[in-house]
Model the fold of this input.
Amino acid sequence: MEKYRISNLKYLEAESIHILREVVAEFENPVMLYSVGKDSSVMVRLAQKAFHPGKLPFPLLHVDTTRKFPEMYEFRDNFVKEIGADLKVYTNLEAINNNINPYDSGTVKCCSQLKTQALLNALEEGNYDAAFGGGRRDEEKSRAKERVYSFRDEHGQWDPQNQRPELWNLYNSRINRDKGENIRVFPLSNWTELDIWHYIKLENIPMNPLYYAAEREIVRRNGLLIPYYKDKVPLKPGEKIEKIMCRFRTLGCIDCTAAIESSATTIDEIIQEMMLVRKSERITRVIDHDQDSSMEQKKKEGYF
Amino acid sequence: MAETNVQELLHQTQEADLLRFTTAGSVDDGKSTMIGRLIYDSKGIYEDQLESVIQASKNLNRDDVDLALLLDGLRSEREQGITIDVAYRYFSTPKRRFIIADTPGHVQYTRNMVTGASTANLAVVLIDAKNGVLTQSKRHGFIASLLGIPHIVVAVNKMDLVGYDKAVFNKIRKTYSEFAAKLNITDLAYIPMSALKGDNVVNKSENMPWYKGVALLNHLENVYIGSDRNLIDFRFPVQCVNRPNQGFRGYCGQVVSGVIRVGSEIMVLPSGKKSRVKRIATYDGDLEYVFPPQSVTLCLEDEIDITRGDMIVHPRNLPKLEREFESMLVWMSDEPLRLNKQYLIKNSTNVVRARISELFYRVDPDDLHRENAETLQLNEIGRVVVDLFKAVPYDEYRKNRATGGFIIIDPMTNATLGAGMIIDRSRYRASVGNNQKKIVSKHISRKSGEVTDTDRQRLLAQKPVTIWLTGLSGSGKSTIGYGIEKRLVDDGHACYVLDGDNVRHGLNRDLGFSPKDRKENIRRIAEVARLFNESGLIVVTSFISPYRADRESARNIIGETRFFEIHIDAPVEICEERDPKGLYKKARAGEIPEFTGVSAPYESPETPSLQIATDKLDVRESVDAVIAMLKEKGILNE
Done:
């Protein structure tokens, strides 16, 4: 029997590939959200596997808030060039022109305009009927309730109390395209953070240097280690810049992504750290804590 | 040191297999606490997630930290203190990794339980030791078996509240086992537990030395699931065709069952064209053979026209390819099932138009009774015939979950309305808890015309039911039966009595009085009563029908709502004294073998609709009592 066994990572891989292929076969115009982070990188690799030896049969979409780490832009452009993908970048210019930012507008409004609204605009502009996202159910409690195919109405809204039942691997891809309905697809639904790192190691997937520990300039704000970038992160009175050995568990906007103290400079050390860590990765995302049930609320409004 | 740990962990990850399980329990029987403990004790909860639970418990003025809050992901769930939707949880131990489909146990959320069960290898059914086996516990077991889950663990929780009493556990085990015997479950285990105190969840309890088995986690880690996969019947539903350039043409899909090798002969359905496997292509290099659940791209020797929805199989092991099948159907929509309305069916990679042409019966999941029904409402389960607009390849669900399951979609609203499990048609009307013979030609299918049961009822202005009289010979069944008939006909109702005289001499003249023949006798009578009921008649049956199981089977055939069991009760001495046909005399003389009450047993009904003591009531009073009961039940008008 031994020769008919595969590891659980290969099981997850096979499941994800099945999902990717179902979407490409059943939708007219899918797109894959690419956020430059580790989950996106794994998702892109799975897509390469699903359609090998062909190219990715859909474009990548980066919703750019313009507030990402400089290292992310550099990594993104090299990565896309290397794999020959078609990258679309969308920014909510109207919001940028209205000077929406986390300091003057607050994180809730900033996020709603630069991420959620930008995403909705981008999906509408591209006339996409399905959008892959790298969300995982182990990330956050409302995401634990998310379907693999998450139906969204014409405003991109999620109705958690009224989700389509999802049985076996039979996904209901029917939508009213003319009305602007679409499906958000989560091929990594059943992956955990540790799975992602195991897979990155096994597959030798290139990773952004921000994930590795280095001495970085940091300001302490509300108990979080916020990275300091000159001209990008304004200092509040009394705050001082420190140099701390740290890394990022997740990547987002500079202003809202906290670092963790770490000395892990290799993937093996990161995995080792993951084994011991007692806090979830979303703790480093300021936006998840800015209101009660914030992730659920954001998802209802159209967030991934 | 770090290096070794990571290598070791990676190795474990490679080796560990995956168990997907679902949990079902009623409100307050400690399901969330159990899951919380499994995850927390295996370090699957992060500190900040726990912090937010502590905070939420405070916000909701709960006295204790409520681990259930960790699981209830939606705001309305936390506020109402109930679980609404399926949630998926992840944890792992060095031996295995686990995906839990945590499903709510409320009656109205059957659809979520079915959803969670569809991908599970194992189900944990929780029973509160204080409450014993509730109807919901049975429902959970039934759904698990309906969805083909091979392993079930009955976790008898809250043992601490019954003093860790072995007798309580044993009683629950006995009751549940009797019920489960009617289900198709291959592996059933019982574990006494206190999730709150931690007994037998992760660690073996010291409070129950009488329990020799293992703790739940240990069971989950070791239950053998290797044989759950079907490695025999090769099925490869084609998802899409990959043709990036002139030199490559491959068919993408996931092997859902069976094994195939390079060089193997294959057949493509529905076309029936044959070829051989030339390459099994993957990003990580070509493979020599593949097995479930690998996702690969198959290249063939010959250029055959293959599209999405086709299935690649082995030519000597074929699935069914037909335009019609029978199935158990779980209805999941507020909008009831409409017979003959056009729906869409998704099965494997096919989406086809279809109608539900017939509904044989509805199953009451609490006691497995079959009931006549004209539709299925939300959360109801029934047996149906699905009429497809084109033939699709499929297997019986019991043999192949991947090719035997389907969903129903509303082509107008696009909602997912229900889910079905295909049944082999030759097992026509084989249902749980039913002992009928299962031989029906595959060429016979039930057809119904345009006249509905409702039309017939309107025509005859009555509700057709079967009044099933049971009792000893000489108890007065026939006299009372004909009395009921006379009264009903006088009142303008269409009624007919079936008794030994008009059945044993014709329809059943080939049958004797052995338990086997008595059983067949009752089965035929029940089928006739059902036909008469369907034609609109009220039926009175007058047979000794001494065995409880046979009467139970008659109830299943006729349908719970139409079946009224009436015990015509008189002491055997009085019956023997009456002896209208001189049968007791003959039996005592040994001339009649297996005579009920003398040389064969009579099993009294446990909960009859009515009991009539004929040593106390005369015929008119007995008939009055039956008529009053029918009025009370709303069968006859006041």
Observations:
- Strands of chain A lie at 30-33, 60-63, 87-90, 130-132, 149-152, 182-185, 214-221, 224-227, 242-247, 260-261.
- Residues 207-288 of chain A form one domain.
- The two ends of chain A are 41 Å apart (CA to CA).
